[in-house]
């Protein structure tokens, strides 16, 4: 009985001088045909090896799948063999035609089937354009193509009488081949290695390293814990990207990113079912994995004659189509951008990065996306004379690494670079230790990735930038300190806009400084803050005098948030007596615990990015004052809000478990008086129960909060919960049950 009934596969091992390619294809076949792992219908698997893996056999297998599959089918393509590339001049010269100049001499790619004859390209080659056309005719976009096509041994065939052609022995651009096959509609393509690398077979192995890792993950050998009884395509790609270079550093896989659907590739075998999460949904896969998601947005605008391209590189918490709000649409409506095509770039919304939908991410994910960006600039977007990059959050690190990895010719095509909220100088050591318990140590300011990035950047651009550079910080960024985002760059390139990290680039209309900074930079005009809060920016810059000079004369006209800014600025100037007078005399401040909580929250966010003891002390002071007023008024919502913040700060700042417990119990006592359910009530109970070591109750209420939370609320709740739990338990083990629970519910 077939388990994955609507699944198809074409498995190609060309043989000839590469007998191990046959073993690779046969090994994959044994997994897909085994009911314990996948159980494909035997009629749906096309195993093409040796003589069957010729041009005719490959194209006929594609034609069969085109006829048999539907929009809900999942399709796996696997090719193990040679690849090659050629230019237009290859054939013009052979035909005695005039050659094209270098800038017009386009590169093309092909597979080398069994029976390949370098001179009979029409009869024996399978060109990338042909593959792309066949793939475009397949109705389903649940399609993955694994290319293991740059082998280290046995690549001996030569292309005779075609001086310009690269023989399979010289083929060094498997990622270029992958990009030329990509139809841009959501298929997944994974190549065994990068440009100028080869695919290796490790000593004692029957299969290539790439295929070995693919076999392991399809059999569920990639981890010790599962949240569902399946292996999905994102897990397959993540494992291959992690394991291949770990076992052999000179081989790094390549993959595209616009995955249509995180579809099921195989089953977890019965002997591993015991490792399933208690929250796993153990059901049989339906006959058709029907999609309930909208199409992946892979293009904002693509035209035939544009010679400029604008790439929007989003972070790991965002979605390709929504991170930048209306900005792409506003730009497309502007006549000045008629010559610009526009594309989003980053993980598609249907796939979770390795660490989940989080502001932060793993170095593996950063490397994967930066590889994709640099390869795309070189191959996918090769027709464009100018390339502009607008990058947000970790997208900024990705953009910088990709620019550095480009050769000089392609780097000089970059015309504009805008970095919004990017942690370019890494994370402070104290933040890594206290908030994340070293979970993100790879992004530390003193770690090799950041140090190498900054060193390479300084060396490469010692004589100035060949592009226009803008580096932007948000006034209330609760994740990335301004000194990390703007610190490594000269002041002339740096700007401040108001807002927080999440949403800082999401413009709803033209009345937005992030949008205006983008449009003015791309049109080479000066930028001036028009819509940002000037006081917010001055507070970020430490210009407290300017804030006081602006707000103090309007004291009687200020609303609650304006008054909070003034109090914050006065505290920054150590004018505490004036703060006390304001809190005593101003009509908005009298017995206003909410106002004090706002000020306390400002200091808390500042502390969590700087870990300055003074900021922590100020946060604690204002929350304590707010709690006292709330208790006097019997305002239970305010009591549990301030108490839970004090419990968190008691743990993180003072490491005082006794006070943490006292405040958590106080929060629970007040919650009992709140009869109405809400997102933040459940989140508060979840956090309080965590401090009281009632982990089951904590999970129950965190799960309820997660059901109602949006991406911003989820990240906020996860940040507090993760910091508290890892501090309490002194572990950051990703296999810890509670840590896995938090990731499943808030980052997936």
Q: Poorly predicted ranges (pLDDT <50, ≥5 residues)? A: 151-172, 280-292
What is the C-alpha radius of gyration, as a whole number of Å? 29 Å
Helix content: 40-55%
User: How many structural domains are formed by the residues?
Assistant: 3
Task: Indicate the CATH architecture of the largest domain.
Answer: 3-Layer(aba) Sandwich
Strand content range: 5-15%
- For this structure, the CATH topology of the largest domain is Rossmann fold
Mean pLDDT equals: 80
Distance between the termini: 32 Å
The order of strands across the largest sheet is 2-1-3-7-8-10
Q: What is the number of E strands?
A: 17
Please identify the top-level CATH class of the largest domain.
Alpha Beta
- Largest β sheet strand count, sense and barrel closure: 6 strands, mixed
* Alpha-beta content class: alpha/beta
Please provide a written account of the structure:
It is a single chain. With 748 residues, this protein is α/β, with parallel strands linked by helices. It has three domains: 7-275, Rossmann fold (3-Layer(aba) Sandwich), CATH 3.40.50.1460; 308-532, 3-Layer(aba) Sandwich (Rossmann fold), CATH 3.40.50; 571-746, Tetratricopeptide repeat domain (Serine Threonine Protein Phosphatase 5, Tetratricopeptide repeat). 43% of the residues lie in helices and 12% in strands. A six-stranded mixed β-sheet has the order 2-1-3-7-8-10, sandwiched between helices. Mean pLDDT is 80; it is low at 151-172 and 280-292.
């Amino acid at each position: 009985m077939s388990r994955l009934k609507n699944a198809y596969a074409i498995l190609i091992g060309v043989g000839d001088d590469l007998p191990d390619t046959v073993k690779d294809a046969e090994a994959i076949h044994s997994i897909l045909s085994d009911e314990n792992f996948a159980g494909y219908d035997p009629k749906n698997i096309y195993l093409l090896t040796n003589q069957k893996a010729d041009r005719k056999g490959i194209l006929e297998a594609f034609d069969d799948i085109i006829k048999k599959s539907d929009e809900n089918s999942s399709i796996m393509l696997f090719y193990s063999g040679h690849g090659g590339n050629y230019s237009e001049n290859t054939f013009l010269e052979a035909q005695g035609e005039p050659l094209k100049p270098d800038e017009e001499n386009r590169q093309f790619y092909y597979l080398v089937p069994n029976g390949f004859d370098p001179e009979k390209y029409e009869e024996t080659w399978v060109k990338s354009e042909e593959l792309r056309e066949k793939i475009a005719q397949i109705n389903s976009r649940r399609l993955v193509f694994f290319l293991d096509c740059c082998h280290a041994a046995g690549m001996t065939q030569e292309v005779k009488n075609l001086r310009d052609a690269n023989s399979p022995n010289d083929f060094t651009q498997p990622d270029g081949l992958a990009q030329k096959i990509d139809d841009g509609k959501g298929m997944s393509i994974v190549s065994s290695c990068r440009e100028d690398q080869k695919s290796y077979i490790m000593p004692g192995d029957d299969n290539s390293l790439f295929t070995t890792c693919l076999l392991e993950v399809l059999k569920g050998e990639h981890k010790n814990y599962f949240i569902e009884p399946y292996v999905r395509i994102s897990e397959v790609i993540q494992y291959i990207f992690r394991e291949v270079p770990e076992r052999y550093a000179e081989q790094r896989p390549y993959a595209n990113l616009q995955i249509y659907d995180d579809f099921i590739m195989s089953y977890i075998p019965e002997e591993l079912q015991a490792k399933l999460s208690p929250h796993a949904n153990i059901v049989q896969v339906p006959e058709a994995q029907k999609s309930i998601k909208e199409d992946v947005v892979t293009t904002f605008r693509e035209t035939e004659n544009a010679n400029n391209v604008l790439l929007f590189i989003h972070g790991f918490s965002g979605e390709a189509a929504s991170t930048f709000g209306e900005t792409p649409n506003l730009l497309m409506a502007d006549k000045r951008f008629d010559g610009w095509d526009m594309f989003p770039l980053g993980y598609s919304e249907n796939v979770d990065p390795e660490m989940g939908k989080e502001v932060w991410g793993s170095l593996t994910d950063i490397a994967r996306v930066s590889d994709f960006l640099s390869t795309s600039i070189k191959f996918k977007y090769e027709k464009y004379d100018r390339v502009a990059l607008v990058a947000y959050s970790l997208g900024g690190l990705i953009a910088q690494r990709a620019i550095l990895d480009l050769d000089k010719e392609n780097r000089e095509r970059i015309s504009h670079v805008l970095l919004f909220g990017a942690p370019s100088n890494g994370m402070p050591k104290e933040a890594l230790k206290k908030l994340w318990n070293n979970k993100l140590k790879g992004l530390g300011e003193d770690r090799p990735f950041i140090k190498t990035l900054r060193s390479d950047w300084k060396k490469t651009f010692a004589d100035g930038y060949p592009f226009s550079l803008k580096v932007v910080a948000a006034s209330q960024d609760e994740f990335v300190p301004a000194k990390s985002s703007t610190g490594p760059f000269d002041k002339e390139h740096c700007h401040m806009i108001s807002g927080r990290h999440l949403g800082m680039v999401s413009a709803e209309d033209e009345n937005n400084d992030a949008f205006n900074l983008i449009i003015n930079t791309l049109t080479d005009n000066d930028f001036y803050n028009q819509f940002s809060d000037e006081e917010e920016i001055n507070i970020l810059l430490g210009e407290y005098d300017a804030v006081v000079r602006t707000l103090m004369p309007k004291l009687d006209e200020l609303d609650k948030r304006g008054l909070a800014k003034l109090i914050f600025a006065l505290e920054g100037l150590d004018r505490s007596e004036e703060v006390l007078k304001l809190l005593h005399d101003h009509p908005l401040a009298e017995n206003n615990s909410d106002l004090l909580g706002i000020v306390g929250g400002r200091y808390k966010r500042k502390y969590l990015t700087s870990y300055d003891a003074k900021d922590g002390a100020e946060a604690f002071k204002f929350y304590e004052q707010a709690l006292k007023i709330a208790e006097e008024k019997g305002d239970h919502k305010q009591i549990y809000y301030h108490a839970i913040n004090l419990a968190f700060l008691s743990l993180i700042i003072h490491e005082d478990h006794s006070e943490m417990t006292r405040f958590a119990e106080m929060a629970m006592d007040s919650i009992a008086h709140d009869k109405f359910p809400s997102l933040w009530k459940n989140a508060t109970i979840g956090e309080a129960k965590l401090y009281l070591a009632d982990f089951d109750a904590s999970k129950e209420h965190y799960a309820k909060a997660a059901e109602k939370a949006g991406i911003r609320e989820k990240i906020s709740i996860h940040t507090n919960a993760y910091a508290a739990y890892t501090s309490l338990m002194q572990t950051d083990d990703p296999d810890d049950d509670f840590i896995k629970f938090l990731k499943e519910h808030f980052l997936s």
